[in-house]
Specification:
The complex is a heterodimer of chains A (390) and B (463). Chain A has 390 residues and is mostly beta strands. Chain A contains three helices and 28 strands. In chain A, strands 21, 22, 23, 24 and 25 form a five-stranded antiparallel β-sheet that branches. Chain A has a four-stranded mixed β-sheet with strand order 2-3-4-5, with helices on one face. A four-stranded antiparallel β-sheet of chain A has the order 6-28-27-26. In chain A, helix 2 runs parallel beside helix 3. The longest helix of chain A is centred in the first third of the chain and has 22 residues, at 25-46. Chain B is globular. The chains are: A mainly beta (390), B alpha+beta (463).
Chain lengths: 390, 463
Amino acid sequence: MIGQRTSRPRWALTLAIALSVAGTLMAEESALQRCAMELARQILQQAAETERWTLTVTNMSSLGEADVRVVREAFEAELRGRLTTHDGESALPSALRLAISENMMGFVLIAQTQTDEAGRTYVSEWPRTQRESSPAAPLRLALNLHPLFRQSYPILDVVPIGERLLVLDPANVSLYKRKEDRWEIGQLLPLPQSAALIRDPRGRLIIEGSSFRVYLPGQHCAGTVDPSLGMDCIAGDADWPLDIDGAGLAPGRNFFERENLPPFYSGARTSSAGQSFLILAGQEGTAHILDRTLKRVAAFHAWGDDVAGIKTSCGEQVVVTLPRGASDYDTVQAFEIPDLRAVAVTSPIKLPGVVTALWSTTTRDNAVVVVFDVDTGTYEAYMLSVDCGR
Amino acid sequence: MKHTCFRLIVVASSLAAGIVECRPHYGGTLRVEMRTIIRDLSPADWPAAPVESASKDRLMKLVFERLVELDDAGTPQPGLAFTWTQDPDGLGWRFYLRPNVRFHDGSELTPASGVESLAGTLRGCEVMAGDGSVLIRTPQPRPDLPLELASTRHSIWRRAPDGRLAGTGPFRTSGCSSGPCLQLVANADCWRGRPFLDGVSIQMGRSLRDQMLDLELGKAEIVEVAPDAVRLAAQRGARIWRSMPNVLVALLLDAARPSTQDRRLREAVALAMDRSSVHNVLLQNQGEITCAVLPQWMSGFAFLHPPAQNLDRARQLVASLASPVPPLTLACDSSDPLAQLIADRIALDAHEVGITIHTSTLRSGADVSLVQLPTPGPRPDVALVEMVRALGLNDEKLPAPPAGLRAVQAAESLLLGDYRIIPLFHLPALYASSTRVRSWNTRGLAVDGTWRFEDLWLESEEN
């Protein structure tokens, strides 16, 4: 059986995630080398035994200096003693130009020899692979952002469990183990296919000891992490854990509904001066502040659509996304609500993409934020915490 | 060239004050305008003109889906077929259909409906229904079959009982109230999820000037914009959306005309062209100057053909011709004022080397045509074959997809060396949009200019 493709390739996805998380620098370097050597062999096949060249290398691609050096060294090694500089005595060497280029599918090596007017062109290619970049430098702000995990498939929620990480995406619940400085896939449980997908998928993962619960559009699941990953799912809507009872995802939509409340994208409970409030990020771009009786007591108009409550040693804060405008990058900031006023308590942090999920952790001392980088097409989960030491 | 060159650039020329919404909202009708008129979305009937064909392709992708789709890198990905296999003899393919997919008329996607769609388009192949799959047998091994099935021409569709065309895509067709237009309504049961928009209203046959007026008057949210109008549109507060440079602007020298039979004359025309001044002034630096058929972002080797005006060499070539050069007629699109300006400039450049060119808006009888040809990306092997066929050039020496870059580069070089086609520019698809139009997770345009309206949403008007 050849030529197989699948839309939900569990094994392929697992492998892709593992490769992505593990990083593929070495594999890419060997691919680069192979490509350069293959190109050199093409030239040797066509050239006369006596032909010698002077080499010039031009990098027109996004590859860095280190990779260009790898290409050059592999190319030169394959051509062995055929490269030279003209010493004035031997026959005049020909020009050999090596260009490193790229297209949508990958990188392209192009060599041109100019022995006579005709010249020859040689092409070798290798596909682009996802490459890990360095994690973002730690931000020295009151709001701290710690990278947790990234993949090219939507991340709905993540929960760290000691040295492990439970990840919820639209197709799977996956358990990763930390191995040195990277996550390695441990177990993966496919989720039952829901009747219809949502283009802005929402999902929550709640950990209670070694058990977990999953909330998804049209289904909810309960499972265990230990001794092994297991899970049972039930079709049907359930109330979501949103700091407000009785709220669930509207069928086929990306917002929540509850009786007597306007539709909302997210909710967070917070308190100030002994009073508890519920904040709902409404559809119309307004954050509604509700008291214990769910009566609206205030509204803020300058927040985005995602809010999450955090409890710290220095009080209770609400982390919110800020209006993005036409940008591809969201900003988050923490606020407190004294006297029903929104008071910023941290500087805003610009995220490397748009926020697709912002949830308080089960213990409410942090929040998980998932960001989609439109440029690279990757989803990245971060742990957001408020640093009280500032 | 940095990696960023490979990302679709969507430039927001100004930030709309007061935008507060982040997550996509459901609702609203997106109003779009375009120049070309597409009267029929039937996959069985394709317009001959490349620009119309590309427009139809864009519209069809909103309504119909295919068994296989191509990602931005040109790799086949599952579409309505969630997996596929090839028999060991290389002749048989089995495409397994995604379950629980429904056409817009409510009927289920079945192997029989897949066969019905493909039997008419996959000529020479035997298409059969299997158990949850579509079986295709080809007379010769066809490693490119998944690639071919990703073409819009192999869309899966059916004729609903009311006579309308039904697809499985994010939007279904609806009635049209007046003029050449297309009304699309969100497919609530789309297996990928309902689009955020309630619908899309597409007005056709609108001139660029009228489109811009409608955008400014709030009668449209997305309109086409000419390269020379981009700056003004941005200054007036519109957002500019650009695809990768995917439209080839080129001179096509008619092989049937006696006047263009001498290769030296054709080469002289190519060497006379001053692309830079046209690019800087008339095109206002939109897109790229080129001497290659395939754009650099698609092939990676367009730089092998650097644009070089060489008037001395061109004059030498003209002088070497046995007989005096007769005046040539250059045809361009009568409805495109910018094309006429470019044609005038080309005539001026040719005059510099002793070649007289008269411009005309009549295609018939023209020796040379100024053509605009969309590059059907993102695969260079597929694009080259389709472009050469669309231009009516000899395709015998082209490598059949899937072909390696080496073969594609060699074939393109051969093609260019004949000077029947003289590439001038690669232009992006350009649109101006209202600041109410927002995108989610994807850009509003794919790298090849495909509309991704299913991922767009509209900001509330009060914001």
